[in-house]
Amino acid sequence: MGCQLGKLAASERRGAGACAGPAVADAPPPATDPRLPLTAKQKYSMLASWKGISRAMEKTGICMFIKLFEENQDLLHMFEKFRQYRTKEEQINSTELAEHANNVMNTLDEGIKGLDDLDNFFAYIHQVGASHRRIPGFKVEYFWKIEAPFLAAVETTLGDRYTPNVENIYKITIKFILETLIEGYEKAGTPGNST
To answer: Cα separation of 157 and 49, whole Å?
Structure first.
């Protein structure tokens, strides 16, 4: 009798779990904000993999800027605090470059973590884009120069976790962030805008 009661209780637990399981699993993921170019699953994957980047922000940022300067030596003059560091070794050891890399990575971190609240995301990233108006000689097309170095730095940091799917998600995300920075930069240049 005890065995039968145990089997009945176990089958009821399995039955309840089985009924609840497929209903949850079959339910579509919650809708994302239509302004976000990622699906709910892609956004989840982005936020999950970004945790690996957040644990190595400075290293990833320095790697990103070194790649930027390898590909765009002419941009080094834009950075007053570390423009004198011409070699890769000097750049790696520059506290000024590390500080700037941290600032940029923290901005990206805020942006990526803000993907759950796009109103705040847009306000923040637009403000960052507008702030680049104060940099003498800065051109809006310079924003795009960071795309490939960012992706290369993320790949270096994530290693084998940088799968083709993750790469695609990062490409979509960095493009979205850069487009938003450009919007902020351009809006700040329109007459009557006090940003």
So the answer is: 11
